[in-house]
Each structure stands twice: as structure tokens, then as C-alpha cells.
Design brief:
The structure holds 2 protein chains of 2 kinds.
Chain A: H1 3-30, H2 39-53, H3 60-65, H4 77-99, H5 104-124, H6 126-129, H7 152-176, H8 178-188, H9 190-195, H10 200-226, H11 236-249, H12 254-270, H13 278-286, H14 290-309, E1 351-362, E2 365-376, E3 380-384, H15 391-399, E4 406-411, H16 422-428, E5 430-432, H17 445-453, H18 456-459, H19 461-465, H20 468-488, H21 504-518, E6 522-526, H22 534-549, E7 553-557, H23 561-567, E8 571-575, E9 578-583, H24 585-590, H25 592-599
Helix pairs in contact in A: 1-7, 1-10, 1-11, 1-12, 2-4, 2-10, 4-10, 7-8, 8-10, 8-17, 11-12, 11-14, 17-20, 17-21, 20-21
Chain B: H1 2-32, H2 39-55, H3 60-83, H4 91-113, E1 118-119, E2 128-130, E3 133-135, H5 137-159, H6 161-171, H7 173-178, H8 183-209, E4 211-212, H9 216-230, H10 236-256, H11 262-276
Antiparallel strand pairs in B: 1-4, 2-3
The chains are: A alpha/beta, B mainly alpha.
Chain lengths: 604, 286
């Protein structure tokens, strides 16, 4: 075999697989979408590109080739290439709109089934695809025309190389924009992203679409390089070879994924030489499917071994370093872009947040059983009660993380569309923290804050493509606020550390910082100092008080009584899903009902 | 009318095959919480194992039981080697690994048995004639074996300590662990039962389609998924019902809409159920 020709074919194949793996990585490594039917985009791209570029039925070229297909638009290959990308993206929208809300394994099954339905259609609609026979004489652009036939494979390889290079650079750039950062945040913790008001479904859909686009483009490159397209090329194992390439390379890193595709191609095509191994050749002679089967056994084994022993792949996710803070770190007051305090200092009488008759049942158990209370504007309201009183559930219900069985929540006199979930509540002005901070573990401290502070406008895919000036201005503003928050919370030493490596206290501070960047007028904090040492706990409450002086209203669930008594006023006491008492801390401390609930009886 | 009844008989037989297979898959899901993509290959191994053992002269029922037991043991070995070490790492590694296991299994079968279909050694039986209706005995045997298998599963689940433990783990894994359920034993027993029942499903599939081929189980997997999800994942009785519905649906669809798309109907049912009612039409859990 001609070594140069073999190497060229190998490299072309590796690049096409690389493009596929980058597309899958956009969907999975960046947005956490578990797609087990990725081959569908590849197939749609390949057929679209072929049918768009084939000479129309009845034309001279059609007759000369003795073709039998029924659709051929006869358009230039460049147009076909673009059409393939569009087709892939459209299929992704279709898949996304129907199934993106499904949970992990359901999504895997649904996408797998979608790809099989598509394959079934491609196999059976023979008028469109010629079924198992496939379509031959797919145009190879410029072959024998302005590129001599002898060097054509090299020219094609060069074209593939250029296309993949452009895609790689673009996609890597995209990953560092607010859009890419949001996708990585969603991958780490989708609920946390929604609790920061992010339209996660839209972002995931866009990532799915980009991945579909790349799959379609890869399909086009594939079909024009071979000159044939048939349905048998798009069996499920192709999807899992792309998965293997991605996992080999290291998810979350596009360059690694490209390397992974190269490795996969080497391994796959290397098995061609298995027939030269003396013992195996004899076996292969008896059973024509021996070698292909052995190849798939190897791929299956590799998939198992890579997942088990090599979960980070060849290249781990890049360590990201934030741009240096602007020369003059702004004073903490600038963390919030606009002062939101109508009456800083003293709380006013009008409630900014009110809940009425909230109920939540789990089976026969009423966790929240008709809870009603109000939070005054500008107050730090404490929410206390024995374990199991329903405090955290109340926060979940207010913030839209869980849906109440009954009852209402008013924010500033209006009932926000709480059924729309946490993102809608954030837009209505209510943000929350979790008892165990939910951070984006692979993002750095700075990135965690940037995600929290980013404007939805700057994060869209549209802003990533156009609107560069606006995006950069918004980015600079957010970066200044993020650095102010880092200074305010003393997190300067860990600015570029992934959140997953922070200590418990630092996590609590970072979670508070995210809320500061989000700058919601109402913040719900679930045990902001649990598990934090005493001096840091005091520090956190001082930060809270400082924010409160600037006008933020707080509702805080806390178990540390001295802190509650010192910082919160009023205090709401819950017991067995209901409000037991409400009032200034001194009165609460003496209330016999509260003592009974906590201690099980009033000392005589 | 005769055509319709004829189709219903085939539908019930296919439904029985799917129901048995679905029970095995859903049992393992209930205890382990992940969808085993290698499950279809237990069907293939069961069918090929039976062909092999029958070739040594064992009677078909004996060969079937022996194949079920062997596949059950293999299921435990595979789980111990490939799945259990990954359990603390969440869902994704398990899903991808199970796909890898699937490829290893059916391609290994292909290496040893070749890619071409092999005739299943079922003696040729003359169909019974009832009026205008031909009732193939193969289909009747399939329906009866499927019913018997489901009765046995029911007895295991309700009447034995193991079954009760499995249901407890399936209802609330954390609570079961806290109550001192020996997780290792239950897990092993579940893998064994799941793979063994899958093997029986494969034998029944071979009986209804007369031949076996290396990727019969892999191709059948989505049909089984459809039944499992229709019945509510993790619920054995839901899976039985889901299996019957999908089997009838596939046969009726093939007869009255388009034979080319028979399995695709099941996939569409699957996607529709996932979208409209992700917890299944009959069951709880999820």
C-alpha cells in the first residue's frame, strides 16, 4: 500500500472525526447534554450535502453515471457544505425542543432512539436515499478540474485542515466568552445556574445547535471525500466512536478532543493490520466478519478502560487565569452597579416579600403546612426553628426551586410567575443561597463571580457572534464588580482557584459574593455560616449588614442563636411546618411557645 | 377479522417476549438506578448459549435453563468487573461503560459464531387451525412461557426475602442501606436475575423469529426500553404491561401502517412517552 496515500486518508478521516468530536464536546463537555444519537447529525449533513450538490435527475451527468436518485439540486459544493451545517443545526433544534428538559439517562435513551428512527427513515425511504444501495458519484469539488486527480487527496486534506483549524480557533474563543462560561457553569450545576437567573434551557439549546451544525459540516466533508453516501455508514457505533474520541482527548478541552480523534483513527485503522498477525490471519480466513468484529471489541474495551482508568483524557480541562484586575480596585460600594436602596438604613413597614398559606407535602408528610409571614423592606429577617421545621423547604418554595402545593408568594406587591422556576424569581428580584453552597466547581473563583454578574444580554449566542462592543463594555463592568467583590470578601489569594478546591468557609464567602454580583434586592440565605469558624462567621454577618445598610433585604435561615439574636430583627420561628412566633429577638427569646418547641417543655 | 386476530396472536407473542425482557431490565434499574445498555446482549447470549447447549444434545428446555444460569453468572461477573467500581462516580461513566460492554459482547459472539443468522433448533411444529385462523404453536409456547416466567418473578418479588429486599432497595436505596440490607448480596442477586431473565427473553425472541444473529439483542434493546419506560421505569408489573402494549403496537403497526417501520413504531412510542410522561404511563418511580 502506498504509505503517503494511506497517511493522507488517515489524516482526513481523523480531522473529520475531530470535527465530530468537537461538536459532541460542545454539547456534552460544555453544556452537559448527554447525546447518545450524535451520529444523526452526521447522517443528515452527509445526505443533505450529497443531494444538494448532485446533478439534477435527467441531466447529462446523471445519465452518464447511470444514477437513480430522485433529488439532486446541482448546486455548488460550497452551498451544499453550508446546507449540511444548517440541516444539522435544524435537527438539533428539533431534538432540543422536544427533549432537552429530560434528565440524563432519559435524554441518552431519547437521543439514541431519535438517531435510530432517523436511520430507519433513511433506510426505508429509498426514493430519497436509495436505501442500502446508497448514492454514488457524489461530486468531489474541483477534482480533475482545477486540482489534478493525482494530488486531489492532498488538496482535500489541506481543505479539511483549514476548516477544522478555523472551527477549533472559533470554538476555543467561544469557550472564553460569557456564552462559553455560562455553558461550563451549566455543565457543573444547572440548578445553581438557574438560581442565578440564567436561561439555562436556551443556552443548552444553543450549544446543542452548534454541535449539530458541526456534525452536519463533518457529514458534508465525509461524503464529498468518499464520493458515496449510504445509510450503513451511520450505525450507532459511530456515535460511540465519537464518544470514545472525546473521552480519550479529555472533555471540556477542544484541542484534546481533536487529539483524541487522531488516536481513535490510529487505533481503528491500525486494526487493519491485524490480518498480518500470523495466528489471526488463519482465523480471519474462516470468518469474514472476524476482523471487523475484533475491531469493535477493541473499541468497546477501550471505551470501558478509558472511562475507568483515564477519566480526564489526554489533555485535561485548561486552567484558566483571569485578566489582571483593573489598576485601581474600585471601592466595595461599586459592586452593585446602581444603588438599589430607596431608604437605606432603617427597615420600612411595607413588606417587600410576603408568603401566604404555603403548603408542601411529601407523601403523607406535611413539610410546610400553611406558612404565612412577611419580610419588611430593608430588614434582616431571621427564620429559625428546630430541625425539620420546614425552613429550607420554605426557601425552596419562595425561590421556585420547588413548587408549592398551595399558597402564594408576593414580591413587592406582585405575584411573580413562580411556576416558571428559580430564574423567573431572580428576575423578580429574589436570589438565594444554598445550605451547602452550589458553586461551579471547575470554574475559578473569578469565573464563578463573572457568571453571577454577567448580563443575560452579554451571554447570549447572538452577543458572542455580533455586538462585540456592547459585550466587551458589559464584560469590563462585570469584571470590575467581580474584583471589587473579591477584595471585599478577601478572596484575592484564590482568585484563579477552581471553586471545587476551596475550603468550606471560602465556599460560603464565594456563594455570598455571587449573590452580591447578582445584586438582587432580596436575598434568601440558607445557613450562611454553618460549618464556618466563629471569627469568619462574624465577618460574614458583618458583610451581610454592610449590604443591608445599602438597601438589600435579607431572609436568613440560621441555627447559631447568638448570631441571630445579634443581627436579625425581626425573627420568625417555625415549628412543624407552621409559623409559631414572630417578633423582635428579645421577645422571641422569652416566648414560652418557642422554648417548648426547642426544649420540649418549659422549665417549671 | 381473521387477519386482525392473526396479528393479535403474533402481537401477544412478541409482547410476551418484550415483557419478559423488560422485567429483567427494570429489575436491575430499580436496584442500581442506571439503564444498562448492555442488557440487549444478554438476550443474544441467552439465545446463542441455548443453541450451543442444544447442539451438545441437551433437550431444549434444559439447554434454556442452563443458558439462563450461565448468562446470569456472566452478568454478575461483568457487573463486578465493570460496573460496581464506577458506582460512586455517578451515572455517565456507567452509561458509557455499559455501551462498551455491549459492543464487546455482541462482537465477541460474532467472532465465534459468524455474522450470518443461525436457525434456532426448535422442532418444526404444525400450526393449529381454528376456523380460518392459523395459530402457530411457537407463538403459543412463547406466550405460555412468558406468562409462567412472569408468575415466577411475581412469586420471587412477593414471597421471598430476596424479592422483598429488592423491592425495598428499589423504593428507597438509602433507607434500605440504613436498615441493614446487605447491599452486596442484593446487588449480586439482582445482576444474576436480570441477566438470567434477559437470557430467557432472548430464547423466546429466537423462538418467535426462528433464527438468531449476533446483534439481535442490541437491535431489540430500544424496543425493550420502550416497554420499560411505558410501564414506569423500575416497576416490574408496569414493564409486563408495557411489554404487551409495545408488542401489540409493533405487530399492528407493521400490519396496518408499514412493515418497514415495525420497530420504529416502538421507538416513536418511546420518544413520545419520554416527552409526555417521563415517569411512564402506569408506574411510579423515576
Amino acid at each position: 500500500m502506498d504509505l503517503a496515500a494511506f497517511g493522507t486518508a488517515l489524516l482526513t478521516l481523523a480531522l473529520i472525526y475531530g470535527l465530530l468530536a468537537i461538536g459532541l464536546n460542545l454539547q456534552f463537555g460544555f453544556a452537559g447534554v448527554l447525546n447518545f444519537g450524535y451520529v444523526a447529525f452526521f447522517a443528515v449533513g452527509a445526505f443533505t450535502s450529497a443531494l444538494v450538490s448532485l446533478p439534477p435527475p435527467g441531466s447529462d451527468a446523471y445519465l452518464a453515471a447511470g444514477s437513480q436518485y430522485e433529488i439532486g439540486l446541482g448546486l455548488p459544493v460550497a452551498v451544499a457544505f453550508a446546507a449540511a451545517g444548517v440541516a444539522g443545526a435544524l435537527l438539533a433544534v428539533l431534538v432540543g425542543v422536544t427533549s432537552i428538559r429530560l434528565k440524563t439517562h432519559y435524554l441518552a435513551v431519547a437521543t439514541f432512539a431519535t438517531a435510530e428512527v432517523l436511520r430507519s427513515i433513511l433506510a426505508n425511504e429509498t426514493w430519497l436515499t436509495r436505501g442500502e444501495f446508497g448514492i454514488t458519484h457524489v461530486p468531489q469539488p474541483g477534482k480533475g478540474d482545477w486540482v489534478p486527480v493525482e494530488v486531489y487527496p492532498y488538496a482535500y486534506l489541506a481543505a479539511c485542515l483549514a476548516i477544522v483549524a478555523v472551527v477549533l480557533v472559533t470554538v476555543r474563543h467561544l469557550g472564553e466568552l460569557p456564552f462559553g462560561r455560562l455553558l461550563r457553569a451549566i455543565r457543573d450545576d444547572e440548578l445553581a445556574a438557574r438560581c442565578l437567573g440564567k436561561p439555562t434551557t436556551t443556552a443548552k439549546l444553543q450549544a446543542l445547535m452548534l454541535g449539530g451544525l458541526l456534525g452536519g459540516l463533518a457529514g458534508s466533508l465525509w461524503t464529498h471525500s468518499l464520493g458515496v453516501v449510504h445509510v450503513g455508514q451511520f450505525v450507532p457505533i459511530v456515535t460511540f466512536q465519537i464518544w470514545l474520541a472525546m473521552l480519550l482527548g479529555g472533555t471540556g478541552n477542544h484541542l484534546g478532543v481533536l487529539l483524541g480523534a487522531g488516536l481513535l483513527t490510529l487505533i481503528r485503522e491500525g486494526t487493519r493490520f491485524l490480518g498480518d498477525v500470523p495466528g489471526l490471519a488463519a482465523l480471519a480466513a474462516d470468518n469474514p466478519s472476524f476482523l471487523p468484529s475484533l475491531r469493535f471489541v477493541l473499541i468497546g474495551l477501550l471505551l470501558i478502560l478509558v472511562v475507568r482508568f483515564f477519566p480526564d483524557g489526554v489533555l485535561p480541562e485548561r486552567r484558566r487565569k483571569a485578566p489582571p484586575p483593573t489598576a485601581t480596585t474600585p471601592p466595595p460600594a461599586t459592586i452593585a452597579p446602581t444603588p438599589t436602596a430607596p431608604t437605606p438604613g432603617r427597615p420600612t413597614a411595607d413588606p417587600i416579600l410576603r408568603v401566604e398559606g404555603l403548603q408542601k407535602h411529601y407523601g403523607g408528610l406535611a413539610a410546610v403546612d400553611g406558612t404565612s409571614f412577611a419580610v419588611r423592606r430593608g430588614s434582616i429577617t431571621g427564620l429559625i426553628g428546630p430541625n425539620g421545621a420546614g425552613k429550607s423547604t420554605v426557601l425552596d418554595l419562595i425561590s421556585g426551586v420547588q413548587r408549592a402545593d398551595a399558597g402564594r408568594v408576593w414580591v413587592g406587591g406582585e405575584v411573580p410567575p413562580g411556576r416558571a422556576g428559580p430564574a423567573a424569581m431572580v428576575r423578580a428580584g429574589v436570589a438565594r443561597s444554598f445550605q451547602t453552597p452550589r458553586l461551579f466547581v471547575k470554574l475559578t473563583v473569578w469565573e464563578n463571580l463573572m457568571v453571577a454578574g454577567a448580563d443575560v444580554q452579554a451571554e447570549g449566542l447572538a452577543a458572542a457572534i455580533a455586538g462585540i462592543a456592547t459585550r466587551q463594555r458589559l464584560q469590563r463592568e462585570t469584571a470590575a464588580r467581580a474584583d471589587a467583590a473579591i477584595a471585599f470578601l478577601n478572596l484575592g489569594a484564590v482568585r484563579d482557584t477552581p471553586a471545587g478546591q476551596l475550603s468550606g468557609g471560602q465556599r460560603k464567602l464565594l456563594a455570598l459574593g455571587q449573590l452580591m454580583l447578582l445584586d438582587a434586592p432580596i436575598m434568601l440565605l440558607d445557613e450562611p455560616v454553618a460549618g464556618v469558624n466563629r471569627s469568619l462567621a462574624n465577618e460574614i454577618f458583618e458583610h451581610i449588614a454592610a449590604l443591608n445598610r445599602r438597601g438589600t433585604t435579607f431572609l436568613i435561615v440560621e441555627h447559631e442563636m447568638p448570631l441571630v439574636m445579634r443581627w436579625c430583627d425581626p425573627v420568625v420561628v417555625m415549628h412543624q411546618g407552621r409559623v409559631l412566633a414572630e417578633g423582635p429577638p428579645a421577645a422571641i427569646q422569652r416566648d414560652p411557645r418557642v422554648l417548648e418547641a426547642y426544649l420540649g417543655g418549659v422549665p417549671a | 377479522m381473521t387477519d386482525f386476530l392473526q396479528t393479535v396472536i403474533f402481537g401477544l407473542a412478541l409482547g410476551g417476549v418484550i415483557a419478559v425482557s423488560a422485567v429483567g431490565l427494570t429489575l436491575s434499574y430499580g436496584v442500581t438506578r442506571f439503564i444498562n445498555f448492555a442488557y440487549g446482549d444478554f438476550l443474544t447470549l441467552g439465545a446463542y448459549g441455548t443453541v450451543l447447549l442444544a447442539g451438545f444434545g441437551l433437550a431444549l428446555p434444559v439447554a434454556t435453563v442452563a443458558a439462563m444460569a450461565s448468562v446470569g453468572v456472566l452478568g454478575v461477573v461483568i457487573a463486578r468487573l465493570a460496573y460496581e467500581p464506577l458506582m460512586p462516580r455517578g451515572l455517565l461513566p456507567l452509561l458509557v461503560t455499559s455501551v462498551g460492554v455491549a459492543f464487546v459482547l455482541h462482537n465477541t459472539v460474532r467472532i465465534f459464531a459468524g455474522a450470518n443468522p443461525i436457525r434456532f433448533p426448535m422442532p418444526l411444529l404444525r400450526p393449529w387451525q381454528v376456523g380460518d385462523l392459523f395459530v402457530p404453536q411457537e407463538q403459543v409456547v412463547t406466550i405460555l412461557v412468558a406468562l409462567a416466567a412472569m408468575a415466577v418473578v411475581h412469586l420471587i418479588l412477593t414471597g421471598t426475602l430476596l424479592g422483598k429486599t429488592m423491592r425495598a432497595v428499589s423504593d428507597d436505596p438509602a433507607l434500605a442501606r440504613a436498615s441493614g440490607v446487605p447491599a452486596g448480596h442484593v446487588l449480586a442477586a439482582t445482576w444474576f436475575l436480570s441477566a438470567g431473565i434477559g437470557a430467557l427473553g432472548g430464547v423466546l425472541l429466537a423462538v418467535t423469529q426462528i433464527t438468531v444473529e449476533p446483534d439481535m439483542g442490541w437491535r431489540f434493546l430500544l424496543v425493550v426500553f420502550a416497554a420499560v419506560l411505558l410501564g414506569g421505569i423500575g416497576s416490574p408489573y408496569g414493564a409486563m404491561l408495557g411489554g404487551l402494549v409495545v408488542g401489540l403496537g409493533v405487530e399492528l403497526g407493521a400490519s396496518y401502517v408499514s412493515a418497514d417501520y415495525s420497530y420504529a413504531f416502538a421507538f416513536l412510542v418511546l420518544i413520545a412517552v419520554l416527552l409526555l410522561h417521563p415517569r411512564g404511563l402506569f408506574g411510579r418511580g423515576g
